Amino acid sequence: MDRPLVITEDHDLLDDLLRVAAAAGAELDVAHVPAHARPYWSRAPMVVVGSDVADAMAATGPPSRHRVMLVTRDPGDPDTWRKCVAVGAQAVLELPAAERRLADEFADVAEPATRAGQVVCVIGGRGGAGASVLAAGLALTSARRRRRTLLVDADPLGGGLDLLLGQEEAEGARWSDLVAREGRVSFTALQAALPTFSDLTLLSFHRGEAEPIPAEAMRSVLDAGQRGFDLVVVDLPRAPDPAAVEALSRAVTALLVVTADVRGVLAAAQVLSGIRGHTGETRAVVRSGVLEDEVVTTSLGTPCAGSLPDQPRLMTALNRGDTPPIGRRTALGRFCRTFLDSLDALAGARTAGAGT
Length: 356
Fold this sequence. Notes:
Elements: E1 5-7, H1 11-23, E2 29-31, H2 34-41, E3 47-50, H3 54-59, E4 68-72, H4 80-87, E5 91-94, H5 99-110, E6 118-124, H6 131-144, E7 149-153, H7 161-164, H8 187-193, E8 196-197, E9 200-203, H9 215-228, E10 231-236, H10 242-250, E11 251-259, H11 262-275, E12 282-287, H12 293-300, E13 304-308, H13 312-319, H14 331-354
Parallel strand pairs: 1-2, 1-3, 3-4, 4-5, 6-10, 6-11, 7-9, 7-10, 11-12, 12-13
Antiparallel strand pairs: 8-9
Helix pairs in contact: 6-14, 9-10
């Protein structure tokens, strides 16, 4: 695999570039003399030109290409933009301010996206509505279809998705290990660090007091999830915090689990008012009760994704610490399969539309 090409005679600048590349998991080809860069210029996935050699590089007449960046450690240099044009760069990166962007560029080359993961958020209309069970069911169903799936527990007061799945003793990182994370995260490193069971990877909380999830940490995790997984399911708290807002903004749909009774609908309406401005589509999943599904969805002004009856066998299994039973004959299993089929159809329609 070809590596990014760096062209500079400035040893201090080169040290900075090597450090940033190492943090991004990228290896570099380095040319100290512009003439030595010519054999690598066209085939390198990206080229970083130091401002110290920009004019000399331009004098060699390199062919036009994409993903060329001019890097400088002197943000006050009035000649920078002339050099940018001369060398055919598409951007000027001033260090150290632009180190994060440069790291992202290096990481894109070192680890290009292998998936285009869809994000689905699940939220309970009130406590005990069953949102966490639904989130786990969707993730398990997706993984059993041999799709790489990331299940994210974003509700610190939810009791723990690892416990729900009977995996509270599983080795691997939890949110407390990632809350300080900013910038790009390798999806292969994320999957390797987290508890993974076949095609299902889980990010949950440690037992005890849970720290709030910073929006930046959620952004890093979801970026990695969308690059490296087929589906990302996020179990959200009912009151959207900054991390929940980050997840909602990426969701293809948010599923609001509503119990079909008056208090359940009123509570869900409050939750809905808090999330509606942060996501493009919200659909109701109706837990069977005294109200008809149509009454529930009309009251909320939200389309119905389906309904789920009470399942005594499911609750018994969960209380025993068993994995949620989501076989073909269970209501939860049928709902999850139908919903995932609809996601596949939506993705296919978008792909077909993009190709016309």
